[in-house]
Design goal:
Blueprint: H1 2-47, E1 64-69, E2 79-80, E3 83-84, H2 85-102, E4 106-109, H3 119-128, E5 133-140, E6 150-154, H4 161-172, E7 179-184, H5 189-193, E8 198-205, H6 209-215, H7 218-249
Parallel strand pairs: 1-4, 1-5, 5-8, 6-7
Antiparallel strand pairs: 2-3, 6-8
The structure holds zinc ion.
InterPro entries: MurNAc-LAA_cat, N-acetylmuramoyl_amidase_3
Keywords: Hydrolase, Membrane, Transmembrane, Transmembrane helix
GO biological process, one term: peptidoglycan catabolic process
């Protein structure tokens, strides 16, 4: 039969083709498997070098807080007579540092003495250190000496800027100063150029007599630092919980 002969002739070819096909499939499978092993070997260690914001394990890393005393050196900030903003912001910041150290919360100050530090260098330091939180400390001033009170400013483009500001202001409003609440400030350099959550605190008005009296009191400066640290702790806790919840959803 012609058909039988044809099958006989074709069958060795068919089995040969099947063998080649199997070898090709096996090769592809081996290459794919090697690819997975290679990825695990190479990419996993690199993931530990990614920044805080990109790292899903951020919640398990110890937080690092950057405290930024406003002004310094040749830039005194707001002033009233012989009193300058740069001295008050540094005094409060040093108290904050002391409490953070007592609580074993890692921290860095952008300046710890009377030196001028550019806004660029302040943001750069926080970014390079991949800090968890950036808190800039300032005092307000206005032409109207009646203006007074404490407020927290935040970057409105940050998804958690407002909620962090609300937490911080809930602590600062207990200081006995007028509560000016929270204020979005989209153009503040240090808020815009820091890659981590950041806040800028305007603690009282140097141009207001009553606020100035508080600001120059070491007792008030210590009380203020206690409230700032309370705010920092609650923000770190809230953000870490939110971060672990969002990573567990993935
Ligand atoms: Zn200032």
């Amino acid at each position: 039969m012609k058909l039988d002969k044809l099958i006989e002739k074709l069958s060795p070819r068919l089995s040969h083709r099947s063998l080649i096909a199997m070898i090709v499939i096996l090769s592809v499978a081996i290459i794919a498997l090697l690819g997975i092993i290679f990825r695990n070997d190479v990419i996993l260690p690199l993931s530990s070098l990614t920044s805080h914001s990109e790292d899903s394990n951020v919640a398990s890393m110890p937080p690092l807080v950057v405290i930024d005393p406003g002004h310094g050196g040749s830039e005194p900030g707001a002033g009233s007579g012989s009193i300058n903003e740069k001295e008050i912001t540094l005094a409060i910041s040093l108290e904050v540092e002391k409490i953070l150290n007592e609580k074993n919360i890692d921290n860095i100050l952008t300046r710890s003495n009377d030196t001028a530090v550019s806004l660029e260098d302040r943001a750069k330091l926080a970014n390079e250190k991949k800090s968890t939180l950036f808190i800039s400390i300032h005092n307000n001033s206005f032409t109207d000496p009646a203006s007074h009170g404490v407020l927290t400013t935040y970057n409105p483009y940050s998804p958690i800027g407002k909620s962090n500001a609300e937490i911080m202001q809930s602590k600062l409003k207990t200081l006995g100063m007028y509560n000016r609440k929270i204020v979005p400030r989209p153009n503040l350099y240090v808020l815009r150029h820091t890659k981590m959550p950041s806040l800028l605190l305007e603690i009282g008005f140097i141009s207001n007599k009553n606020d100035l009296k508080l600001l120059t009191s070491s007792d008030f400066q210590k009380k203020c630092a206690i409230q700032i640290v309370k705010g920092i702790e609650e923000i770190l806790e809230t953000n870490a919980t939110a971060s672990s919840e969002s990573s567990s959803e993935v």
